[in-house]
Amino acid sequence: MEENRIREHYVFFGRVQGVGFRYHAKNAASSLGLTGWVRNLYDGTVEMEAQGTLEQLNQMLKLINQGTYIQVEDLRRKTIPLDREERGFHVR
C-alpha cells in the first residue's frame, strides 16, 4: 500500500469559506483513511494537503463537491513529496 500512496496539494476557489468546507473535507478524508490537513487562507480560498492512493484522493474530491453549500469553481492540484510521519487528518 505504501508504494501506491501519493501526496497532493490543493487550493480550492469559489464558495469555499463559511460553508463548512474544512469540516466536510476532514470527514471525507478521514472516512477514506487519508492523512493531511486543510485550512482557510486570507484571500478566501481553502488550502489542503492530503495523502493516500490516487483513487482515494479522487473519491475525497467527489465527496467534498457533494457538500450542500460548497461550490468549487476552480482547483489547483499538484503532487508533492509524501509525509511519512503524518497521522490523521486535521483542520488548521
Question: Can you tell me about this structure?
Answer:
- The chain has 92 residues and is an alpha+beta fold.
- Helix content is 25%, strand content 39%.
- The protein contains 2 helices and 5 strands.
- A 5-stranded mixed beta sheet has the order 4-1-3-2-5, with helices on one face.
- Helix 1 runs antiparallel to helix 2.
- The N and C termini lie far apart (27 Å).
- 24% of the residues are buried.
- The mean pLDDT is 95.
Subunit arrangement of the protein? single chain
Largest sheet: 5 strands, mixed
- By DSSP (H or I, 4+ residues per run), the number of helices equals 2
Spatial gap, N to C terminus: 27 Å
Task: Please identify the structural class as seen in this structure.
Answer: alpha+beta
Cα gyration radius (Å): 12 Å
Can you lay out the helices and strands and say which pair or pack?
Layout: E1 6-15, H1 21-31, E2 35-40, E3 46-52, H2 54-65, E4 71-80, E5 89-91
Parallel strand pairs: 2-5
Antiparallel strand pairs: 1-3, 1-4, 2-3
Helix pairs in contact: 1-2
